[in-house]
């Protein structure tokens, strides 16, 4: 992602205000807990879920290991089927390609299928700068666009809004974008959906150009696969004359047979559906059926660099189901906006700092946006060990080290603002590695316990005592108790098989 | 069978009662326990904050301290998980960085012999009824590392259900994280506190006066919130429940009266409101 994000609040800063927004907390809690329970039930129906999960991970790992091979195969197949393939190294290149392709059609508006890749590169904003208006047609994306808001969830972009807030948005904003909301619009889901349907229908019938993403790209036939739930995607993919698909290079799978796995795991993980409602597959162009012109823009934008990291590369298995968001206790309290990325939640916390780097205070704070509770790993349908990657990225933040940026191996310095912590960690480790010092620290702490204040100064200590009492220190440590007990028993404290002289 | 207690640095300094209870419990079950004084910290705070290289000397120290013991028992799910899940990783990374296989071998050896307390009781000793007496209503929070990394499953529950007099009350949202998360608690204090208040609110709604767990670091966070909000509940480590007998009963703190369930939801809301 080429945009600079300097000046955005760090995750803890942004999350702090979200935790105080009771409406947001209630909306998120209700939505995530509902979908969480439904997913669990849908997954529990399959006796071979663990095998499907392992198979999905294996297919993704195999494809990533031979990514160059499968991408070239995909390009050949798409070209043979009448499509044109474009390669974009970063967001700017991808935006420039799409802008040029739209301009070549002579049109000044496009309709869009919900797509994470185009959100990642900021395509709508880039098109707007070129005087091209992009209309989102997914219901939730429409809500977010009308409200001049940002998505806060991968699958449910308007999860932070309740239905009365949505009604207000439709009533106040639809007219500026096209057909106004019906008079006296209520906030019942049926009425809201009907208002959106009427508003969008005129756009579907008028548009000459559509932009989509792709959930999967089948290398053997050059086929794009788009999964959606509303039918808006089917409209966009079939009605316009020109179709432009923007997809990350990691979306390729070798064969149709591989889809068998993901078409089971993705719907159950994301919407808790047994079968996806609208699955559209399209291959190049066909006379008299669908778009006359098809372009595929293959997006790298940090993916090859991510692939170079042995621990972090598993993030590229992600199929964007968002199950990890729905179970994440941090996402539930902080909300999606706190991540300041197209990818919020646990997957965002490992994807964004890899795609964008850890150079800004915000991006350096994202790997810490987790209590490492492991709920995300448990539900991930492609077994991404998100806590493992988070810890690895924390190491990149505090220790720096070798990373790949724009294809070049380079050594980065530790992120700013960790010097005091590093010194404390080092001192702590030194004390813990020298039992005499550790024992003395303990004795000092326990003997002075009556003097300790209830609330502590300093950033880290104050962060604890702002909402919690400190533990009451005991009169003596465990090791002192043990030593006295051993002395009374006439034994030798700590003279176990492993105790060595000189370590005491 | 040579058994060593890995008490953990948090218990050593802040919760010696948990270590003592573990020793009493194991000795009552006929296990002779040793405490190798060379042990200190497993390195979890360092490792989970990103200081992998600072963790390595502690891995070596732990491996040396527990060399020669058949079983290393610890009353902490997260420290057991650190040794079992992360020591092999730390060793593998060191090897990958061309620094030899010594750390990997040391870590793997210790990982294979390390048991969280409930695993040791149920799997190695083969007991679920440890002869404990604890005549109080209790709710149990299964901490994330025990639940998801170690896969402790129903071991803690089976042990608690066999305790004479104990009434186990279901904790709503039991599998949700309490919000401690090590340095997460101070790096993301607002989210951490919000998670903790939801957890204590759920615990209070059971009406029990005691919130039991197998990880004192999580309980330190939750107890801190309970005391700050003057809630009628305190935390207790599972080892202290299991060590409690008719002859030497656990002394329940005065504040741990519990709320009757009707009033508990109200108290939970009130408590949450008192912070900030």
**How many distinct helices of chain B?**
14
Largest sheet of chain A: 6 strands, parallel
Structural class of chain B: alpha/beta
Across the major sheet of chain B, the strand order is 2-1-3-4
Strand content of chain B: 5-15%
- Strand percentage of chain A: 5-15%
- Cα separation of the termini of chain A: 53 Å
Shape label of chain A:
globular
Count of distinct strands of chain A: 12
Provide the residue-averaged pLDDT of chain A: 93
Indicate the low-confidence ranges of chain B by residue numbers. 271-276
What is the oligomer described by this structure?
Answer: heterodimer
Count up the domains of chain B: 2
Main sheet record of chain B: 4 strands, parallel
Explain this structure to me?
The complex is a heterodimer of chains A (504) and B (276). With 504 residues, chain A is of the alpha/beta class. Chain A has 2 domains: 11-303, Rossmann fold; 419-489, no CATH class. In chain A, 50% of the residues lie in helices and 12% in strands. In chain A, the strands form 3 sheets. A 6-stranded parallel β-sheet of chain A has the order 1-10-7-4-2-3, sandwiched between helices. Chain A has a 4-stranded mixed β-sheet with strand order 8-5-6-9. In chain A, a hairpin with a 4-residue loop joins β5 and β6 (223-228). The longest helix of chain A is centred in the N-terminal third of the chain and has 23 residues, at 22-44. Chain A is globular and about 95 Å long. Chain A starts with 10 loop residues before the first helix and ends in a 15-residue tail after the last helix. Mean pLDDT of chain A is 93; it is low at 1-5 and 498-504. Chain B has 276 residues and is of the alpha/beta class. Chain B has 2 domains: 3-124, no CATH class; 137-274, no CATH class. In chain B, the strands form 2 sheets. In chain B, strands 2-1-3-4 form a 4-stranded parallel β-sheet, with helices on both faces. In chain B, strands 6-5-7-8 form a 4-stranded parallel β-sheet, with helices on both faces. In chain B, α4 (52-65) crosses α5 and α11 packs antiparallel against α14. The model of chain B is unreliable at 271-276 (pLDDT under 50). At the A-B interface, α1, α15, α18, α19 and α20 of A face α1, α2, α3, α4 and α8 of B.
């Amino acid at each position: 992602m080429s945009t600079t994000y300097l000046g955005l609040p760090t995750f803890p800063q942004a999350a702090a205000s979200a935790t105080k927004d009771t409406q947001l907390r209630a909306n998120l809690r209700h939505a995530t807990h509902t979908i969480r329970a439904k997913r669990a039930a849908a997954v529990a129906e399959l006796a071979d879920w663990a095998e499907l999960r392992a198979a999905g991970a294996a297919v993704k790992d195999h494809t990533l290991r031979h990514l160059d091979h499968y991408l070239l195969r995909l390009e050949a197949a798409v070209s043979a089927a009448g499509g044109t393939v474009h390669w974009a190294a970063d967001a700017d290149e991808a935006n420039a390609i799409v802008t040029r392709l739209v301009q070549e059609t002579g049109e000044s508006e496009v309709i869009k299928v919900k797509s994470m890749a185009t959100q990642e590169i900021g395509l709508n904003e880039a098109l707007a700068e070129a005087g091209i208006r992009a209309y989102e047609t997914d219901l939730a994306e429409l809500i977010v666009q009308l409200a001049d808001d940002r998505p806060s969830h991968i699958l449910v972009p308007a999860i932070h809004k309740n239905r009365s807030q949505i009604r207000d948005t439709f009533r106040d904003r639809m007219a500026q974008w096209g057909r106004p909301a019906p008079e006296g619009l209520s906030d019942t889901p049926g009425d809201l959906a009907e208002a959106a349907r009427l508003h969008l229908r005129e756009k579907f019938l008028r548009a000459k150009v559509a932009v989509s993403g792709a959930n999967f790209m089948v290398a053997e036939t050059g086929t794009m696969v788009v999964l959606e739930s509303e039918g808006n995607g089917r409209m966009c993919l079939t009605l316009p004359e020109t179709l432009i698909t923007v997809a990350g290079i990691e979306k390729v799978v070798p064969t149709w047979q591989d889809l068998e796995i993901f078409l089971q795991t993705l719907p159950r993980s994301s919407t808790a559906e047994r079968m996806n409602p609208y699955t559209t597959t399209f291959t190049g162009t066909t006379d008299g059926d669908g778009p006359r012109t098809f372009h595929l823009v293959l997006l790298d934008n940090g993916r090859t660099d991510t692939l170079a990291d042995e621990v972090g590369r598993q993030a590229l298995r992600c199929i964007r189901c968002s199950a990890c968001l729905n179970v994440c206790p941090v996402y539930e309290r902080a909300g999606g906006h706190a991540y300041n990325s197209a990818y919020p939640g646990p997957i965002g916390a490992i994807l964004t700092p890899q795609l964008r780097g850890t150079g800004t205070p915000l991006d350096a704070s994202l790997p810490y946006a987790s209590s490492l509770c492991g709920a995300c790993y448990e539900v991930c349908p492609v077994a991404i060990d998100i806590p493992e990657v988070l810890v690895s990225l924390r190491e990149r933040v505090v220790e720096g080290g070798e990373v790949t940026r724009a294809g070049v191996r380079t050594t980065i310095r530790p992120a700013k603002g960790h010097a005091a912590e590093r010194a404390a960690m080092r001192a702590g480790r030194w004390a813990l590695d020298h039992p005499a010092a550790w024992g003395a620290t303990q004795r000092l702490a326990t003997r002075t316990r009556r003097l300790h204040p209830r609330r502590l100064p300093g950033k880290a200590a104050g962060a604890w005592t702002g909402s919690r009492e400190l533990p009451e220190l005991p009169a003596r440590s465990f090791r002192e108790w043990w030593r006295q007990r051993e002395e009374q028993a006439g034994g030798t404290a700590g003279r176990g098989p492993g105790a060595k002289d000189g370590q005491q | 069978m040579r058994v060593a207690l890995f008490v953990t640095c948090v218990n050593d300094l802040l919760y010696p009662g948990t270590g003592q209870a573990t020793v009493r419990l194991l000795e009552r079950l006929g296990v002779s326990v040793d405490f190798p004084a060379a042990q200190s910290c497993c390195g979890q705070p360092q490792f989970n904050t990103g200081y992998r290289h600072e963790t390595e000397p502690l891995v070596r120290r732990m491996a040396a301290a527990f060399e020669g013991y058949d079983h290393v028992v610890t009353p902490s799910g997260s420290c057991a998980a650190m040794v079992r899940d992360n020591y092999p990783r730390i060793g593998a990374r060191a090897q990958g960085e061309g620094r030899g296989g010594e750390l990997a071998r040391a870590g793997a050896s210790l990982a294979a012999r390390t048991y969280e307390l409930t695993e040791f009781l149920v799997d190695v000793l083969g007991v679920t009824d440890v002869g404990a007496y604890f005549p109080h209503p209790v709710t149990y929070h299964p901490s994330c590392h025990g639940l998801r990394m170690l896969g402790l499953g129903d071991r803690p529950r089976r042990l608690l259900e066999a305790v004479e007099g104990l009434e186990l009350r279901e904790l709503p949202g039991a599998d949700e994280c309490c919000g401690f998360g090590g340095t997460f608690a101070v790096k993301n204090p607002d989210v951490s506190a919000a998670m903790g208040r939801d957890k204590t609110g759920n615990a209070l709604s059971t009406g029990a006066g005691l919130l039991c767990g197998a990880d004192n670091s999580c309980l330190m966070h939750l107890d801190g919130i309970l005391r700050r909000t003057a809630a009628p509940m305190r935390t207790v480590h599972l080892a202290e429940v299991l060590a409690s007998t008719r002859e030497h009963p656990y002394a329940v703190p005065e504040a741990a009266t519990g709320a009757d369930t009707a009033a508990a939801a109200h108290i939970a809301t009130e408590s949450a409101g008192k912070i900030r």
